[in-house]
Amino acid sequence: MLELLICSLLTVLPDFLYRRFRQGKRIGHEITLFSVWYELRWGITACAVLTTSLITTIFYYHPATTSVASYFRTVTVLPETGGRVAEVLVDNNQQVAAGELLFRLDDASQRAAVETAQRRIAEVEAAQSVAAADRAAAEAGILQVAASLEQARDDLARNLELKERGSSAVRETEIERLENLVARREGELDAAEARKAAVEENIGVLIPAQKASAEAALKQAEAELAKTQVYAGTAGRVEQFELQEGDYVNPILRPAGILVPTEFVDRDRFAAGFGQITAGVIKPGMYAEMGCLSKPFTVIPMVITDVQDVIPSGQARPTDVLRDPQDNRRPGTLTVFMEPLYEGQADGIPPGSSCIANAYTNNHDLLGDPELSTGRWLFLHMVDTVGVVHALLLRIQMLLMPVQTLVFTGH
Questions:
Q1: Predicted pLDDT of residue 214
Q2: CATH of region 75-105+228-258, choose from 3.40.640.10, 3.40.350.10, 2.40.50.100, 3.30.300.30
Q3: CB neighbour class for 259 (10 Å; exposed up to 12, middle 13-18, buried from 19)
Q4: Quick one: pLDDT at residue 322?
């Protein structure tokens, strides 16, 4: 409407004044409601063409959008394991610190597993003490068998010496008995040494492996026990937290609530969705203006810091069905990121607010080019000038926004 009024001042109004005062035609006589088109056809046609051209120029070189928001991060409060709630330590809408305990699940089975693992470690340690006693017994047995073997060898050697001297006191059967006794004592000594080696193998290899396995089982049981206690991963405010003792929570099907961190990521960074047709105009460094529903009557100067180089509607995931481009329900927008031009101007805007924004093409540097043609110079001046119209429209929208919201929609 504003563009139409401006264009009519340059087209329809001069045409009417010419016919009214120069040609002497009178309203209600020569100029009537039925003769308006014929009498003012040149002005109306020129006004329509100029209005269309002006609107096209404004919205192309100074694009606008009603899709602006500042996104913030939320953390889902989830336990690492499912279970029934045994104790709730915080309330809904409560501020919590990082690492603060939120709630505790029933941990009877986990504690039993921890106690079982501890008992297994104690059992292995007892087996280690028994093995040490077995090693001492094996060493004593080796000494005993070694002494018996030494005595048997001495008796055999003495009898063999007497036999060689031709003594009649030595019998052949006695020599055979002593030889068998020596062989038996040597076997017993080998067996005793083997028993000692087995005990040392248990002490050096088997029992440490059993103890390490028991300690690993204890750590696993303690880890499972720790999963029953849910802590706040970051400082923030607990929302939608309605847990009661006896409720069942599950990491997949039943979250406990949402934690909104105190320190928002990119709090002063706003994402705006502009039409794809403006992709050739919007560049990082452009100036913009923004107004939000949560901060009426305020226009915030902004600067475009980044332009996403892909259109979100074009993203695809591998499926078993080929993607058909005609199935896209909407063309998607160009995602643009903006920040306040001056620090602190967006502090009063709650994250997630709905906003509107205008971006303005600035040709100041190009206008300073001495090689710029006259026609191009005039065109760029016109483009920069009509941006005032869009800035005025934004301010009118901000003035009317509370009225439209509170009176006409009732929200």
A1: 87
A2: 2.40.50.100
A3: buried
A4: 80
Identify the CATH homologous superfamily for domain 62-72+264-312+331-411: Efflux pump adaptor protein, beta barrel domain (2.40.30.170)
pTM of the predicted model as reported, rounded to 2 decimal places? 0.67
Please write the tens of the pLDDT for every residue from 30-49. Answer: 677 666 666 677 777 777 88
Chain mean pLDDT for the chain: 81
Residues 142-159: pLDDT tens digits?
787 777 777 777 776 776
